[in-house]
Amino acid sequence: MRAITIPEPGGPEALVWADVPDPQPAEGEVLIEVVASAVNRADLLQRQGFYDPPPGSSPYPGLECSGRIIELGPGVHGWAVGDEVCALLAGGGYAEKVAVPAGQILPVPDGLDLITAAALPEVTCTVWSNVFMIAHLRPGETLLVHGGASGIGTMAIQLAKAVGARVAVTAGGPEKLARCAELGADILIDYREQDFVQEIRKATDGTGADVILDIIGAKYLQRNVKALAVSGRLAIIGLQGGVKAELNLAALMAKRAAITGAGLRARPLNEKAAIVAAVREHVWPLISNGQVRPIVDRTLPMPEAAEAHRIVEDSAHVGKVVLTV
Question: Is the pTM of this model over 0.85?
Answer without folding.
Answer: yes
